Amino acid sequence: MANHKDNKFLLGNELFEVKRGEFHTSELKLAERWDVNRKTVRKFLELLENDQMIALHKTQKGTTIKVNKYNAYQGNFSEGVDNPMDNDGDNGMDNPMDNDGDNGMDSPMDNGGDTNKNEKNNKNDKESKNEKNEENKKHIEQQVAHVWNRYPLKKGKATAIKKIPKLIEQYSYEQLIRCIERYELGLQKETWRKPQNGSTFFNSGYVDYLDGNYQEVEIVVEQHSGYEFQPKSPEMIAFLEGE
To answer: Which one-letter DSSP state was computed for residue 200?
Structure first.
């Protein structure tokens, strides 16, 4: 950033002279370069000035910064002679102790660039996590809607919709669908039964149809007074016998 030789430039209608080891800039430009606010830039420059590393000359048209001991930083390379340690062709403009080409003017938020990068990484991680949470939320909402649409009797929706997400989390979406399928199969085999309201089934009715609890309905045929009795399940037999 610092000039390697005396230079003049036009700023507005005024001709500025910047000597070797100086450069003209502004707090705004440095804030944009370092990705910090102007207050942080101002404090950082004041800190360097108090430590006698730089000298500041502020005007309404910006700030001229003089790098103290600039020649010492550049070694014994004279004006117009290439510095063999200089990779950008500016004849010793770079501070040999400086790794990012800004003559020791590292960002006050940048310890080798790590702090600023960490802040950006943390921000990106947070945004990525929010996106994943949003996608997961939409996925669960779709599963809840599918489970509800799959159930045969659409009554008690408000209560069921609140319960279904918890059941999906506890038992999984796939097992909940299997519960409905098993319940429907039982209704087909036992035509005398009427389906429960959705709110009732998802509150407690599903329990008997979970993978660990379900027993397939067995059809029992009995003869009574010369005619064939209506097929019954073990549940129906227990009901008729008063158990």
So the answer is: H
The DSSP 8-state label assigned to residue 209 in this structure reads G
pTM for this entry: 0.42
- The residue assigned the tokens 């009797």 is 153
Residues of the chain with pLDDT under 50: 77-101, 103-104
Rg (CA), the chain: 39
Tell me the C-alpha distance between 187 and 157, whole Å: 20
Distance of alpha carbon 85 from alpha carbon 91, whole angstroms: 9
Provide the edge-to-edge strand list for the sheet that holds 54-59: 22-25, 62-67, 54-59
CA distance 64 to 44: 15
Tokens of 151: 């159930």
Angle at 64 (CA atoms; ends 58, 65), nearest 5 degrees? 115
Helix (H) or strand (E) run with residue 8 in it: strand 7-11
Residue 37: which of 27, 47, 46 has the closest Cα?
27
Dist CA 241 CA 80 (whole Å): 111
- Tens-place pLDDT, residues 130-176: 888 888 999 999 999 999 999 999 999 999 999 999 999 999 999 99
- The answer to whether the Cα torsion of 35, 41, 43, 45 is positive or negative is positive
Structural contact between residues 198 and 161, judged by C-beta atoms closer than 8 angstroms = no
Task: For residue 224, give the H/E element and its range.
Answer: strand 223-224
